[in-house]
Design brief:
The protein is of the alpha/beta class. The chain has two domains: 125 residues, Urease, subunit C, domain 1; 336 residues, Alpha-Beta Barrel (TIM Barrel). The chain is 35% helix and 21% strand. It contains 18 helices and 21 strands. Strands 5, 6, 7, 8, 9, 19, 20 and 21 form an eight-stranded mixed sheet that branches. Strands 15-16-17-18 form a four-stranded parallel sheet, with helices on one face. The protein starts with a strand and ends in a 6-residue tail after the last helix.
């Protein structure tokens, strides 16, 4: 960890995510005043403001003024020709999903300008120690908000058998109420409802969360329609199960689904869920009805959608074929690299045998574009580390896919800044570069409005009012 006061040598040459920058000398204390001068600020609330000086002290932005005004005795970073955006969120991560990666994940996330994360599923006994470390004084880590385990139904998908153990069983209303109260008592920021929950248990969970003032995140339960369940929650992940409600024959498909969910053969939760997706997803997409889909999206008009396009549309944009993948991959722990190398090899071999279908990938892009058209709010999340999602790096891939789906670069930034803050009712504290808001910012070499991929041209990350450069994250890197 960095000490409370740290120094950089004069005009250090830093190679940061593929961009060479000349970083000025500075030393700063966490309780000292800092400023970024001559910079263009960009955020979804204020738009573009040129020639600005942004002052911050401790964990707060204290003043924003035109760069021609006097600065005074302040530690400064020269932002001339650069662009300052709010700190980014990854709104869907699993900090404890892979043991080999959990320790390094917070630092990796922060190195890519991710200053806040929402952990959307992990057992408390594993999540709480990680959260404690991330919230420790001077930790090199994003702010963290967490749900605890996936609240699943009788047949748990992530049960520790076929998949990592991050879900728990909820078979009746009373036990689900008690579990949610327990999560609240243990600091949970929201709850996450999963796919195998019954309508009765779902209703009890919603009522309890509202009583406790906990936001609700959810997959659409397989036993329910998206236009019904989705309207009751605050966010939905992966676009999952919305395709059924967009089909002409959605009622018949749902009745078929309810019969299969009886699970007379007592299939494991993961197998049951996967078989339903395989059976119904593509037929529903092929039987698309614009009228039914618009009716569904109207019901979801106030429900934040976190589409995780970099995962849903992975067949269109294989991560290991991206030009900057190798450098990002090299920052992972060696064990993680070895484990993922096996997955990559398997995917390559499978692709050689048969070209992967892009039908669901194309549908996901289409649906996000339709959601944008209909004014449905969209948030940026990745499901890191699932599906070869490098912490931090993958959020930038998600922003690129959101733009590919039809969002403007500014709307993509909004999805990773303003919408996450609104979800937690923190829009008065986070999401834009304004006086009184948290000192979480990212200084870029290139304009993200010209090309959203420029969000990776990072020269500095400001987190909790502390300034980090590439050398703080990768001190042994020389180029």
């Amino acid at each position: 960890m960095l000490a409370q006061r740290f120094f950089l040598p004069v005009r250090v040459m830093v190679f940061f995510f593929g961009f060479l920058c000349v970083c000025p000398a500075f030393s700063i204390e966490t309780d000292a005043t800092g400023a970024i001068t001559n910079v263009t600020t960009i955020d979804a609330i204020n738009g573009v403001r040129e020639n600005q000086t942004v002052f911050f002290k401790q964990d707060s932005i204290t003043k924003i003024q035109n760069s021609t005004a006097p600065i005074g005795n302040t530690h400064t970073i020269d932002g001339k020709g650069k662009y300052l955006i709010p700190g980014l969120w990854d709104f869907h991560v699993h900090l404890t999903y892979e043991d080999s990666l959990s320790k390094e994940m917070p630092k990796l996330l922060l190195s890519y300008g991710i200053t806040s994360v929402r952990d959307t599923g992990g057992l408390l006994e594993k999540v709480l120690p990680v959260v404690k470390e991330m919230r420790a004084h001077n930790a090199i880590a994003p702010r963290v908000f967490y749900a605890g385990p996936l609240l699943d139904g009788r047949d748990v998908v992530y049960d520790g058998e076929s998949r990592p153990h991050i879900g728990v069983q909820n078979i009746n209303a009373q036990s689900s109420r008690e579990r949610i109260k327990f999560l609240k008592d243990n600091g949970a920021s929201f709850i996450k409802i999963y796919e195998m929950v019954s309508p009765k248990v779902f209703s009890a969970m919603i009522d309890t969360a509202r009583e406790l003032n906990l936001p609700v995140d959810s997959h659409v339960p397989l036993s329910m329609r998206a236009r019904i369940a989705g309207a009751e929650v605050d966010s939905i992940e992966h676009l999952r199960n919305i395709e059924l409600d967009c089909a002409k024959d959605n009622q018949a498909l749902h009745e078929e689904r309810l019969a299969i969910l009886q699970n007379e053969d007592r299939l494991p939760g993961f197998v049951l869920r996967s078989s339903l997706h395989k059976l119904q997803r593509i037929p529903a997409i092929r039987n698309y009805s614009r009228a039914e889909c618009l009716a569904t999206l109207n019901a979801l008009s106030n429900t934040l959608q976190v589409p995780t396009l970099r995962l849903n549309s992975i067949s269109l944009n294989l991560p290991f074929e991206r030009g900057d993948w190798a450098q990002a991959f090299s920052t992972l722990p060696i064990k993680t690299q070895n484990d993922w190398a096996k997955q990559i090899q398997a995917q390559r071999e499978q692709s050689e045998l048969a070209q992967p279908s892009t039908e669901f990938a194309d549908w996901s892009l289409f649906l996000v574009g339709l959601m944008k058209e209909q004014g449905v709010p969209i948030g940026a999340g990745t499901d890191t580390p699932i599906g070869l999602a490098i912490p931090g790096y993958s959020l930038h891939a998600e922003l690129e896919m959101l733009v590919r789906a039809g969002l403007t670069p500014m709307e993509a930034l909004n999805s990773a800044t303003v919408e996450p803050a609104k979800y937690f009712s923190l829009e008065d504290q986070m999401g834009s570069i304004d006086v009184g808001k948290k000192a979480d910012m990212v200084l870029l070499e290139k304009n993200p409005l010209n090309d959203i991929a420029n969000t990776k041209s990072i020269t500095h990350v400001i987190s909790h009012g502390r300034i980090f450069s590439a050398q703080d994250f990768h001190p042994n890197t020389t180029h």
